Amino acid sequence: MLVSKVLYLITQKRIRPSEIVMITFTNKAAAEMKKRIENAGYGKLGFVGTFHSFCASLLRKYAGRLGYGPDFVIFDDDDQGALLKQIIKEKDIARMTASYLSHLISAAKNQLIPPDKFTTFFPQERAADVAKIYSTYQARLKKNNAFDFDDLIIKVVELFRKDDEVRFLIHDKYTQILIDEFQDTNYAQYSLARLLSEESMDITVVGDFSQSIYSWRGADIRNLEKFQEDFPEGKVFELEQNYRSTPPILDFAYTVISKNNGHPILKLFTEKNGGEDIVIKQTQNEEDEALYLVSEIERLQSKFDYKEIAVLYRINAQSRAIEEALLQYGLPYMLIGGIRFYERKEIKDILSYMRLIINPDNEVAQERIMKLGKRKWVEFVEKAIPIREDIEKKDTESLMEEIFSATNYLALYNEKDPDEYSRLENIKELKSMANSYPNINDFLEQIALVESEYSEG
């Protein structure tokens, strides 16, 4: 869509390619757009890339206007986490993790909320502490002549709002702004889009209310509605023809999406024929679900290679039952974008506690728990004695609960932190598995067998 619009602007409206900016959300999509335009023989555009790369290119030229040097560095997630950990330690603030603070600071930046306004817009528990860390964090970034990824956008917005000369220079240089996946923009990105186009009002955006899946990282589908308010002379074209999916998929999707009354719904169509029907299978529990998946994979394997079959799940904790079933039946698999269930930190920690309840001399488990802190180790040693009493009368889940109570292990994770919430979900899944193996020795043996099957595979 956007590539066609660019070619139209160049060939029909005689817009110079150097005046056109195309922005999307992934480098892969940007590279594909750039290649298609270059292959058409019209040369390079003014810019093709992501919001962050576009802003970084502007800051390399104009960062001095904000008090930064042109040779600034960009802090990635690891750098950001390391800096926050330093600040937490210096300020001696307990019960706050770097990942939790990073999440809150990013949420604030996505809404263009500075440190001094944080408590107004985030009136939550310990907001004042977060605001202080946020303020110190920003000061330390500047001291290091560094930006994090969120800064790249908010600093350009700040630049445009403060410096008319720069804003007019950019308006003169780039007269046509095109943005893909607009439903995934947050407030800061929307503000940037508006500032870029407020002079010429020549802006094209492509977006789909029904494809917004990034609200958890600040995306706001209301930006599509706001766009129509801020650009009242804009024209809306409904692109209802689908080129990828088959009729059964489109019909099923519409049946689900049409129940949403919160935004406009398009009835998509395709000129493709055929396609398999959607199957909804209700199973009794996660183990039955995993076995059903195995049977379906074996059925499909006569037509497709294993590498052509994908299994999607909603949260990482759901991988446990699926992984075990695949291993049990000898089906090869690769876990994408995650760590095997029993290799996850929180799972290994809990299993180490449980192995020490059975065998206090387990050196490997001892070493792992001691790394959690000397105090926690001493407390566990003292409280493990009553846990072991009458152990043969206790089921696995009860023992697990006693360990949680004795060690206060769950307090290590903040459920408001997305990463740590995922760890708590994994722990919940481990507890669920404990119901199937009430004897702790059977429980630990089953896990060992599952892991050995993976190693042998």
Automatic annotation (TrEMBL):
Gene3D superfamilies: 1.10.10.160, P-loop containing nucleotide triphosphate hydrolases, PCRA, domain 4. Residues 247-457 form the UvrD-like helicase C-terminal domain. Residues 1-246 form the UvrD-like helicase ATP-binding domain. Its EC number is 5.6.2.4. Keywords: ATP-binding, DNA-binding, Helicase, Hydrolase, Isomerase, Nucleotide-binding. SUPFAM superfamilies: P-loop containing nucleoside triphosphate hydrolases. It catalyses: Couples ATP hydrolysis with the unwinding of duplex DNA by translocating in the 3'-5' direction; ATP + H2O = ADP + phosphate + H(+). GO terms for biological process: recombinational repair. It is an enzyme of class 5 (isomerase). PROSITE patterns: UVRD_HELICASE_ATP_BIND (PS51198), UVRD_HELICASE_CTER (PS51217). This is DNA 3'-5' helicase. Belongs to the helicase family. UvrD subfamily. GO terms for molecular function: 3'-5' DNA helicase activity; ATP binding; DNA binding; hydrolase activity. Pfam families: UvrD-helicase (PF00580), UvrD_C (PF13361). InterPro entries: DExx_box_DNA_helicase_dom_sf, DNA_helicase_UvrD-like_C, DNA_helicase_UvrD/REP, P-loop_NTPase, UvrD-like_ATP-bd. It comes from the Bacteria.
